[in-house]
Specification:
Rossmann fold, 484 residues, glycerate kinase, domain 1, six-stranded mixed β-sheet, single chain, 17% strand, alpha/beta, six-stranded parallel β-sheet
Length: 484
Amino acid sequence: MTPVSDAALEVMHTTATEIFTGAIKACDIPSAFDHRLRFEGHKLSRLMPDGSGPDVIDLSAYRRIFVIAIGKAAGPMLQVLLDRMNRRQGLRGICCTNQMPAVRNWRIRYFEGGHPLPNQDSLAAARAALALLRKARKDTLVFFLISGGGSAIFDLPLDPEITLEETIVFHQLLLASGAPINEINTLRKHFSAVKGGRLAIAAPEALKVSLLVPDVPLRTLDALASGPSTPDHSTVADVRELLAKYDLAPRLPPSIRAFFEREDLPESPGNKGWRASFLPKMPWTDPARPRRITSAASMSEEDPAFRDSVFEILLSSHDLVENARKFAQQAGYHVVVDNSCDDWDYAAAARYLLERFHAFRVKHKRFCLISVGEVTVTLTRAPGAGGRNQQFALTCALELANHPGEHLAVLSAGSDGIDGNTRAAGAVADPTTVARARAFGFNPEQSLAEFNACPLFTAIGDSVATGPTGQNLRDLRLLISESA
């Protein structure tokens, strides 16, 4: 086959990058907020998707309003809430994010938590949030603003004897395990004093409103930031099964291993027999209604701390996909969406999507395959500079090197603008990637084996760098082709 021209490659690289960045910019938190919620005077209305009319809450019925903002989008979410809400009296809050907001409100305490590993601020923010929530009473309204990345950014061991350094090792082992995010977060929930619903039960009498920007599959929303405000349906038995499945126990710090091996390891709050989605079950509640409060230890059908809760998804990976589809169609591509490989191993996902692409390409010469979700990487050694998206892209590049005439570009990037331990969001690969990398002195197979793809893509100019986006809606993969 005739090698693809530089001009054609440039068009595909540029188009893929523009679709990616355009889709992220279109996922606008202020617009999403206004689409779901409306503040009018002292009234807050939740706009119902089925058109049945708004649910309304009277802010004047509450003496105090607490805001707990957690995750990579915590800053923008908090600022929009403060901008829209006229009420300031009795307002206090905690914001814990990995990028300190440029504009801050004196009523809010700000913490710069660590990511992908927790730091001292992660623990300090968790302690401050618990202290604030314990002041909540029946006359308190609590907003939880939860976005992706919160599992590392915001944490506190349930066992106070466990140190920050040991907590970091625990998170490192989970990230290197190759486990999908819902399994990783099951372990985090049972380890943490602020995950798995434990923030909610710190304010059992308050009305709690959780506004969510998830970076997890919508079927497992309680995995978002390891579910600080949501009932948890995973169990201690699940934890022990996962520790054995990934052979984690022998590698844990002794204090954490002893914690998980306790016979009285506490269950996280939530009905363990109820596995269905909790979202449709949580309506707005009447603040004047009598409330029955019991301890977490006496849960029956559901912990009453969650009874006075409502959950609203502001944005999700569905919005990211639909915006990417729109931009690709506007660019003249036939578009197919395939999210089947969510949580797959990166190499298996690369093979699957390339096979799917070639199957559709037979009928459509100008074609775009879109896939959203996250792939997994099992680290077998200390990694170099890279992340799951660049690992996926380099795997595709090695496969495409066998087809030098293929008019195809593959983009894989994180919507938060950060891939692994790098400043890149991801990378773009094509049939010439491997040859160009070798010309720069790189060994692509070695880079892949050492989880060190970032230097290669940076050297050849094919890394995708957006900077932190203030968003976190999972990863986006685009496979696009022009007519040969």
